[in-house]
Amino acid sequence: MTPTPAQLSDLWLAPHRPLFLAAGCWAFLAVLWWQWGAGLGLAPPSLGTPTLWHVHEMVFGFGAASMAAYFLTAVTSWTGRPALTGPGLQALVALWVAARAAMLGADSLPLPVLIAPGLGYFALLAGVLARDIAAARVWGKLGFPAAVAALGLVDVLFIIAARQGWALFDTVALVRAGVMFFAIKVAVIAGGMIPAFTGNWLRQVGAMVPPPRENRLANRLGLATLFAALALTLAGAEVTSGLALIIAGLVQGWRLSGWRMRAALRNPLLAMMQLTFLWLVIGLILVGVARLLPGLWPEADAVHALTMGAMSGMVMSVAARAAARREGGALIAGRLLPLAFAVLWSAAWVRVASPLFADSYAALVAAAATIWCAAWALFLVAFVPRIFGPVLRPVFSGARAAPVSIQPPAGP
Question: pTM above the 0.85 mark?
Answer without folding.
Answer: yes
